[in-house]
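Need residues for this backbone.
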């Protein structure tokens, strides 16, 4: 249920083309559907302006198949994150119309067009190639939320001249998502070059005392450059979602 669907329903009741009991029947599953193992939020699009999002990690492919079927029957969009390849293949066997983005480990059900509400471009940047999976999760999330997204990969501080070659692209973005592991220095550098919001995403990429992303997280939280906001380790989805909200303002 989104604003357009609800408006159409109310207009049909007002015009006498639909009775009140018939309208109530259509709203029977509002605001959520109870599947036993999950309660699908059918009110989310109306409330937030974004489609339902499901974390695929730890869910069985059978559970995901049932969730997709319910969302599809309601005619809504759906983004599933953190879907490992074997699980994605199993779901696609039952729902071949889903879009599978292997690099970001996402599945997307595109039932209806999402209004483009972004006021500018979101630029997703990585320090290294190993950070791309998390960056792609952020980019795909922002795209399905109705934003124009650009990607700039492998421009970290180990070779900072690579970043400076794209200075114009940095300045053209309205929101920047910067993904880095190791010591997590790149967001501070980027933030020092632009006057736009920078969302920093620490990744679990690194050796020894990188501590599975904690070193990058601490470094980003201690950034000396103003305007850096930090999400959790490997949380590309959170960064993409936050960037989408900012880009709508």
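Answer:
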């Amino acid at each position: 249920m989104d604003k357009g669907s609800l408006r159409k329903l109310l207009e049909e009741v007002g015009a006498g083309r639909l009775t009140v009991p018939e309208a109530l029947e259509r709203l029977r599953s509002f605001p959520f559907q109870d599947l036993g193992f999950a309660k699908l939020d059918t009110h989310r699009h109306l409330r937030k302006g974004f489609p339902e999002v499901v974390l695929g990690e730890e869910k069985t492919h059978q559970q995901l198949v049932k969730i997709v079927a319910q969302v599809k029957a309601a005619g809504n969009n759906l983004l599933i994150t953190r879907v490992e390849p074997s699980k994605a293949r199993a779901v696609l066997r039952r729902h071949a119309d889903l879009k599978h983005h292997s690099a970001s480990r996402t599945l997307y059900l595109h039932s209806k067009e999402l209004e483009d509400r972004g006021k500018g471009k979101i630029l997703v940047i990585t320090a290294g190639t190993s950070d791309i999976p998390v960056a792609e999760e952020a980019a795909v999330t922002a795209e399905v939320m109705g934003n124009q997204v650009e990607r700039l990969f492998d421009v970290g501080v180990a070779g900072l001249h690579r970043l400076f070659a794209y200075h114009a692209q940095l300045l053209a973005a309205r929101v920047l998502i910067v993904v880095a592991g190791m010591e997590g220095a790149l967001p501070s550098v980027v933030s020092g070059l632009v006057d736009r919001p920078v969302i920093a995403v620490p990744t679990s990429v690194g050796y020894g005392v990188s501590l599975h992303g904690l070193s990058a997280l601490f470094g980003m939280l201690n950034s000396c450059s103003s305007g850096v906001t930090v999400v959790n380790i490997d949380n590309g989805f959170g960064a993409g979602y936050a960037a989408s909200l900012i880009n709508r303002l």
